[in-house]
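Try this one yourself first.
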């Protein structure tokens, strides 16, 4: 099958979170023999120092200046929210299925005869979780629903997102390239988390974690907590026993290689969390909430200790006190990622849905 993917990301095995998952399923589809190319319209080349695959084309989109009165553009936005990308001068190869890898990319493919769109998360669910519904959010929700309704095929990375958006949305597994290196969880009680701390849900998770951490320190001798990622300074957290702020690290492996587990009291946001998927892929266990493993194919006792935010501290203490539990979770989590979220698994699941909708050519 011939496939053309439109996205604002670059498919890179060590790129952004979205770029890594894009690389995974596209690579899987190509290994299965499908003819697939990616066109990225993102205004910046994320990871400019890295060479992009030869099947990816970077063609940034600069919105043209507004013509006519502003009120006319507002009326157009009400009818067709987030539709500026429709002016991008791109057409898919003849006979290709055109996939928008995000709802915001859908206007670029909307005029083609065979279309699909991917929903990584739900704008509505995330904003409800943050209790922040703005006019901009309403437009995002409308654009998301329109894309899912108009596309011939709509993919979601979790059953929860598929249910909320409704209609013909099909849940498929998110892809991730299993690293060659396997990490053994630190035998010492070292919890860690790495995130973009400018994102409000991550700040909520941090507040929850810091709230229970004094109880953890009191119950677990020598307990340490490592915080990594951008937009976080030591002054943001203050003096906390056993806490070290690593700041932005060059590679997540720099943090994962030091830790016993990932501690992530995830708020009720939607879609898979790549930070959790990445830790599991390396063999590092995770203590989190149901939202932290949303969309991940994990059986009971595989990879993660899943608990409520109210009981998070107790679960974290239990995991930090048991090296054997952490080792078993790490081994089973990596195996689950290899089985359900490998590039081949993710690519095969997508292409099977496309074959059902469009045939095999």
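Now uncover the answer:
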């Amino acid at each position: 099958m011939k496939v053309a993917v439109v996205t604002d990301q670059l498919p890179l095995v060590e790129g952004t979170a979205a770029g890594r998952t894009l690389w995974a399923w596209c690579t899987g589809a190509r290994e299965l023999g499908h003819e697939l190319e990616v066109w990225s319209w993102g205004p910046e080349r994320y990871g400019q120092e890295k060479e992009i695959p030869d099947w990816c084309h970077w063609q940034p989109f600069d919105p043209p200046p507004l013509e006519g009165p502003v009120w006319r553009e507002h009326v157009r936005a009400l009818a067709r929210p987030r539709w500026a990308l429709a002016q991008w001068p791109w057409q898919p190869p003849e006979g290709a299925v055109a996939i928008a890898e995000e709802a915001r990319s859908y206007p670029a493919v909307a005029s083609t005869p065979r279309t699909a769109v991917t929903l990584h998360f739900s704008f509505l669910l995330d904003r409800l979780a943050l209790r922040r519904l703005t006019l901009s959010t309403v437009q995002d929700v409308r654009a998301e629903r329109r894309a899912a309704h108009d596309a011939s095929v709509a993919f979601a990375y979790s059953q929860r997102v598929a249910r909320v958006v409704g209609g013909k949305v099909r849940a498929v597994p998110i892809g991730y390239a299993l690293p060659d290196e396997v990490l053994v969880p630190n035998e010492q009680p070292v919890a860690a988390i790495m995130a973009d701390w400018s994102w409000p849900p991550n700040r909520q998770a941090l507040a929850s974690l810091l709230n229970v951490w004094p109880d953890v320190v009191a119950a677990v001798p020598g307990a340490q907590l490592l915080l990594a990622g951008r937009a976080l300074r030591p002054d943001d957290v203050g003096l906390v026993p056993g806490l070290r702020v690593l700041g932005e690290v060059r590679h997540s492996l720099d943090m994962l290689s030091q830790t016993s587990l990932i501690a992530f009291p995830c708020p009720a946001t939607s879609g898979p969390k790549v930070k959790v998927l990445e830790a599991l892929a390396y063999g590092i266990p995770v203590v989190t909430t149901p939202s932290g493993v949303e969309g991940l194919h994990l059986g009971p006792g595989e990879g993660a200790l899943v608990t409520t935010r109210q009981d998070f501290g107790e679960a974290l203490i239990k995991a930090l006190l048991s090296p054997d539990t952490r080792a078993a979770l790490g081994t089973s989590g990596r195996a689950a990622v290899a089985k359900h979220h490998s590039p081949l698994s993710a690519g095969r699941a997508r292409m099977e849905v496309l074959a059902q909708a469009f045939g095999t050519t």
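Discussion: The two ends are 5 Å apart (CA to CA). The domain at 2-175+342-358 is CATH 3.40.50.2000 (Rossmann fold).
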